User: Fold these one by one.
Assistant:
Number 1:
Amino acid sequence: MAEYDRFNSLARHISRNARDKTDSQLIPDLHEAFVSCIPQLPENLKHDVAYYFENAAEKAGVENPASFLVEKLTEALYLFEGEHDRIEETFTAADWEYIKEVISDFALEIDQPLLTYIMRRIVSRGLIDR
């Protein structure tokens, strides 16, 4: 099972079993589910990405922060699995700018083929000169 599928399965499970929780109260569980789904990445990178999208939901004042977070973290998993080109993306320019920064910060700790894939996606958005 692909990690993005596993995350979506965990997210559905979290939502079903949290009937008495508000949408915002699901965020920590979703954060931990995301972190558990990408063992190949540095621990701090995983948490940084989850926190970034949690804060983005708060700043945007979205009505359903848990749904927003699931959408963004799923897309991040597609990217980190090297399959981002298979989906319709929802990342904003600011999201891509953040991805560029965080990947640069952790570049030495990321598998070379994955790093190359992610950097190609970043370059294709014009965020780094070719």
Number 2:
Amino acid sequence: MKYPLKIILVVLLFFISSNSYSQFCWYKYSKENCKLFLVTEFTVSKPIGLSDGIHRKFDHSSNIGLMYDLNDKIGVGAHFFLNVFRNGGWHTQHGIRPRISIYPHSDWQVDISPGLILSDSSYPDGFAGYCLETNVNYKDHIGISFRLDKLEPNPFDGKEDVVLSIGIQTDGIKGAILSALGALSIPVRDFINSN
């Protein structure tokens, strides 16, 4: 988990030291002509198992990262993600995804983010698999998210886990607040699960 955060911090420092910093925004739609901005998304989704592996009941995830708009039609960046899902007990997974954003209209964006699941609480050895997330968002208000996770064979039963999660997403200040609340709830859930 330390390495993805270091990568994001190095990219952030690079952009801060460049001329792009003058066009920095806390989130994309906070002011006109925003070029460099934070990604602070929160998603609640319903997972659908596509394999014989473990089936999740509920999922919420946070994406925290940095984006840079190359022009008014395309942006690039990367984000760290944390997924929390219910399957018997609560489990977590995290990783990193590069992202390309396409802006077909000034109020709409389509994000495509392939990535690596670097850790999953069900996989004690670290790397757990691959993921692909696609989002369609209206400004920073609301969006629809589709995420496909393909996990390595489970070390306990050898079954492969493929999950499609379909959810509702928000970004900007709302996404940051909900992500913080979601992260803070993890120790509470762990305490409840242990009793």
Number 3:
Amino acid sequence: MDKHINLFIALMVILLAGCVNKEVETEKIKEAEEMKETVIEIPFANYNHPVIQGDEMFVPINRNTSDSFDVDTLIQYNIDNGDREVLYESEYDESSMQATQVNEDWLIWVDSSSDGYYEKILSMERSSGKIQTLAETNPKYLTILSPELYHEYVAWTQLVDDGITVEVKLHNLITNETISVAKMNDYSLYNAFVHIEDNKLLWTDTEDGQGYYILYDIESKSTENYKAPKTFPGYATYSNGKIFSINFDDDRNWTSQEFGYLDIATNEYHTFEHESTLIILIHSPIK
């Protein structure tokens, strides 16, 4: 009798496992079908940073056939019917327009000379088509304008007129007000970028040999600093309470890099390395 019961239980386990496996396999098939990629052909030889909102693509392209390397015109391109509209033409003879971002209400981009010494951040209110300049670089210095669009806000890092101080800027597109959120101690290519998510503005910095992640709450206007695992954290993004970044021991030697994330809730840093995870405890945030 016991043998029959054991055999019955074993068969039930096998059947249930089979059903579960089939359900998992079916779910994976559904996910794969939902994640099918769509190839959109852009009928231009040279372009930068296309973005899509609904059926409309916004993309800087090359219309100057005499110079195939120019990206000199921002267009709105309808994916369904191929209609296109010119929104903006670069003011530079040799241009490299880039950094296009869009949401339901706003469009932003960077108009840049090809050598990078002249750059300006521009925004367009989509309902009115009104274009305005948010910031410009000083051509005496080679710096990067890399704006981040979030709802009605645009953030970026900028070298101010003294040629020494770099500030984190936050612009409200509705009120047309720009504020300086912070001054940076250390500035280079790796941390010239900012990121905004969940009403939090993120950037990285280095002070006295210690790297930091800095989160600025847009609503409360409060700032929290978190220690990074290496001296030079960069290319940071924020999502679901975690800060992802590439971290460097030496900002002049990019082979000494490490990719990982800081879990703010646990103050633990996790490194992605050869399919294994290394955990380094980080001190509590500095208020």
Number 4:
Amino acid sequence: MTTEQTEQTELRPFHETVVEAIARVNSYDELNSIANLIKATKIPKGHDEIVMAWDQRLQGMGCGKHEDRGVPANLLAQKQAAEKAADDLRQSFHFGGKERVLMIVIEKIIGLIQNWRQPSPQARDKVTETCKLFETAKKIYSSKNERDFKIAIADLK
């Protein structure tokens, strides 16, 4: 793939691409590979869509619910954890949590910078994501009320 092709291909979130990958599964080996990938990946959103695609593909391949490879249960647990984390962030404002939320944003920024080893085609995306996190930190710090705070943390999920 050329650099020009790479730049024209827009990267999309895992929860969107995995739904398409599930729909293309043609063998039990592929199904197992995707199941292992899903269970090894932290998925912050799109859980219901993935479970729906998974159930449809199992049904299309003649598999029963007992052959779900633990994917729906894994995704349900991840969804619950993501919802709890989002609720914790929303509650942070009431408990002087601006500082706590800012620390979460700063940890994300540090993680991006630490994982940024060599310049790559994804470098521009990392710079953009880092800048967005700094903007989020600025909005959190300058929020004057709960409404502003909730707007500022909306993209952290």
